[in-house]
Input
Amino acid sequence: QKEVEQDPGPLSVPEGAIVSLNCTYSNSAFQYFMWYRQYSRKGPELLMYTYSSGNKEDGRFTAQVDKSSKYISLFIRDSQPSDSATYLCAMAIKAAGNKLTFGGGTRVLVKP
Amino acid sequence: GAVVSQHPSWVICKSGTSVKIECRSLDFQATTMFWYRQFPKQSLMLMATSNEGSKATYEQGVEKDKFLINHASLTLSTLTVTSAHPEDSSFYICSADGTSGAGEQYFGPGTRLTVT
Output
């Protein structure tokens, strides 16, 4: 079993819809949680990061962490075709040098 | 803010030659930088962690004599692929530790290496 599980998709939504992405993890030692967006042949772009349970909002993005259930989510409101990309969740442990453990990525397609 | 650049973005080299890739944090200082490689449709694979002024720490299975990493300053880390072979062809991406203390990493745009 992988430490971080993420549905590979593809997830197809109409423009303007809410995109809902999830990751589950097995290692309760994870302290830091991040979401990245990666376009083809580009480096990942940091969207959200947090270290506490609860919600964090930034513009169209909301990150949610539930440490008791070992579950994180990312919501994208008012989705645009330009949001079509692969979304990666990532987690880290400070004592492990902040090395990131990634989910496998979810491919999202926003249709105009 | 928090921009990481890489140079070159794309390089072709002949088998047996060496290639150097630069990673720079443009608007912040990075004590720690990371190097990854990524194959098509796969997730990122961590190769090594480099800390400014000290030797890099390589992940299991990564040849440190083949992938030389130098982190000479708080804004620059380099990866040199020595005696490159076609199987080294890949997408190499660096990242830098953010400054918030929340474990975030900022990634460069990546370097596509093709060895002929």
